Every structure is written in structure tokens, then in C-alpha cells.
Amino acid sequence: SSCPKRSSTTVHIHNCCTTCYAINTSADSFDYKSFFAKVGLTSKSPDDIKKAFAIIDQDKSGFIEEDELKLFLQNFSASARVLTDKETKAFMKAGDTDGDGKIGADEFTALVKP
């Protein structure tokens, strides 16, 4: 395989297609549902989804804030682009079901599962 070796923490949310997808999507074309399906997160266990959440939650606050969401794709591939403001706001709106301006672990799990 041409995929680089990943730590056991990130290996479950990474594959070769992830890198291609994360780098090649054009601005304002990000679709979180398609992305979660492509990287296989939708079929993962709740524990694996929580591990993915912990990786995205860079400051370990227990929530994914807008600035962390903007860098979402870079958690999967360092060379990926940042999300546009429009994409970030749409992603936040979809995930933030209680309207507090951030996405909690349960909200993230609900967002991932179809």
C-alpha cells in the first residue's frame, strides 16, 4: 500500500482515498455526509467515532469549535485545504443541534451516523 504508516489512534479514520478527497475538493464543495461515508466513519462503532471526535477537538475542551471545524480536513491529511467560512458555518449549523455554537461528542456522533 502507498499509504503512510499511521499511529493506531488515527489509522481507523485514514485511508488513501481520504487524502485524495481532502486535497482535491474545490472551495465550497465540501459535503460532510459524503466525506464521512468515504472515510468509513459512518460504519464505525460509537467508540471509534468518539476517537475521531477527540482528534478533531484539538484543545481538548470536549467540544469542536468553529476554528477547529475550519481545520477539519487537515486532521485527516496535513496537506488538505482549510474549509471555507461558508462550509464551516454550514457544517457547524448541521452539527450544533442545541445552538450553543459548538459541537459536542453526542452531536458529532449524530452527525456522522446516517
UniProtKB/TrEMBL annotation:
Coiled-coil regions, chain positions: none
Recorded superkingdom: Eukaryota
Keywords in alphabetical order: Calcium, Metal-binding, Muscle protein, Repeat
Residues that, per the record, bind Ca(2+) 2: 102
Classification via CDD domains: EFh_parvalbumin_beta (cd16255)
GO cellular component, as recorded: cytoplasm
GO terms, molecular function: calcium ion binding
Binding site for Ca(2+) 1: 57, 59, 61, 63, 68, 96, 98, 100, 107
Listed Pfam families: EF-hand_7
Family in the record: Belongs to the parvalbumin family.
Official protein name in the record: Parvalbumin
Gene name of the record: pvalb3
